[in-house]
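Chapter summary example.
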Amino acid sequence: MAALSPEERQKREEWQKSMSQVPLPKKGCFRAVYPSIEWQETPCTTGPAYPMPPRRGPRPLTVGNSSDVSPQVPSGFISTAIGSFDSVTGVTSESGPIANTGPSFPDTYTLQINTEQFKSTACAGSPNTDPNTGCRGWQAVRI
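The structure predicted for these 143 residues follows.
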């Protein structure tokens, strides 16, 4: 996929914003594919039961190959998340194992939004008490 022109990038950003305002036709799971402005029903699935904690240490500004991206929220609560992968090169397919075990299947990936790590009572009794690198809580939402 070639890099998008500034005009095309702007059109897609405007489409993303407009689609976030289009109500879903009913309760369930839906998707929209640019440039369509209609929601298409898709089967709902359950996210994996195993935790996927955020990586520690510096986070590169790349996606894939075990690299995480961590956007910052200035304050308050996360109520909406909109994003895209605007520039992808050399990818002809995607697959992976389910729950990190067994054979690979097509379209096996996860998208997860994590909160900032915080002090948690769940860490009571943890031997790792360092305030910066020790036991910390976090909340995940799988999409």
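To summarize the output: The radius of gyration is 18 Å.
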